[in-house]
Amino acid sequence: MKYFVMSDLHGSAYYTKKLLDIYKAGEYEKLLLLGDLLYHGPRNDLPKDYAPKEVLAMLNPLKDEILAVRGNCDAEVDQMVLDFPIMADYALLDLGSRSIFLSHGHVYNHESFPLRKNGDVFLQGHTHLPVAEKKERDGKFYFHLNPGSASLPKEGNPNSYGVLTEKGFTIYTLDGEVLKEVEF
């Protein structure tokens, strides 16, 4: 299994195109979108080439490849123009013996998601910060993962995306450099 992970596009046609070019050049089973797809939000500056209609036109043809969760900037009006569901606060995936809990991060976070067993994974967006770490809670260990932001990275981080496999999670810059990684 190999999943391409993007978060916090915030309506940037420029960065969405760059990331989808990378996605299409690879061999991925799914495109995981961790929310904040079309709208930039009231606290953010406009991202480069802010064009939500162009972003939805790029994403809709991939509807059968996408698993998405709702971000705090996503609304019912966004769902009306997207051809794939985005309104769930979380999604669950099986990755071999691990459970993957996907959430944007504004409702569930790495300290509140339902941790079922050792080695589970919490995959989120929201903070715009790349994270790939092993953590412990309630006597169990889990992996906290965040690909960072595709269009509006924070704290001096580069624009980034993630790749999730059975073996671990790697965060890449748009130039293909490894930013962070963790092995399972």
Describe the structure.
The chain is of the alpha/beta class and 184 residues long. It is built from three helices and eleven strands. The chain has helices at residues 13-25, 52-59, 76-81; strands at 2-6, 30-33, 66-68, 90-95, 98-103, 120-124, 130-137, 140-147, 160-165, 168-173, 178-183. A six-stranded mixed beta sheet has the order 3-2-1-9-10-11, with no helix packed on it. A hairpin with a 2-residue loop joins strand 4 and strand 5. The longest helix is centred in the N-terminal third of the chain and has 13 residues, at 13-25. The protein is globular.
Q: Please give the largest β-sheet.
A: 6 strands, mixed
Compute the separation of the termini in Å. 14 Å
- Roughly what fraction of the amino acids lie in strands? 25-35%
Helix content: 10-25%
Poorly predicted parts? none
Radius of gyration: 15 Å
Helix and strand content put the structural class at alpha/beta
Main sheet: strand order: 3-2-1-9-10-11
Number of helices, counting only DSSP H or I runs of 4 residues or more = 3
Overall mean pLDDT stands at: 96
Provide the succession of SSEs.
Answer: EHEHEHEEEEEEEE
Number of strands: 11
Global shape: globular
What's the layout of helices and strands?
Layout lengths: L1 E5 L6 H13 L4 E4 L18 H8 L6 E3 L7 H6 L8 E6 L2 E6 L16 E5 L5 E8 L2 E8 L12 E6 L2 E6 L4 E6 L1
Parallel strand pairs: 1-2, 2-3, 5-6, 6-8
Antiparallel strand pairs: 1-9, 4-5, 7-8, 9-10, 10-11
Task: Summarize the model shown.
The protein has about 180 residues and is an alpha/beta fold. The chain contains three helices and eleven strands, in the order E-H-E-H-E-H-E-E-E-E-E-E-E-E. The strands form two sheets. The chain has a six-stranded mixed β-sheet with strand order 3-2-1-9-10-11, with no helix packed on it. Strands 4-5-6-8-7 form a five-stranded mixed β-sheet, with no helix packed on it.
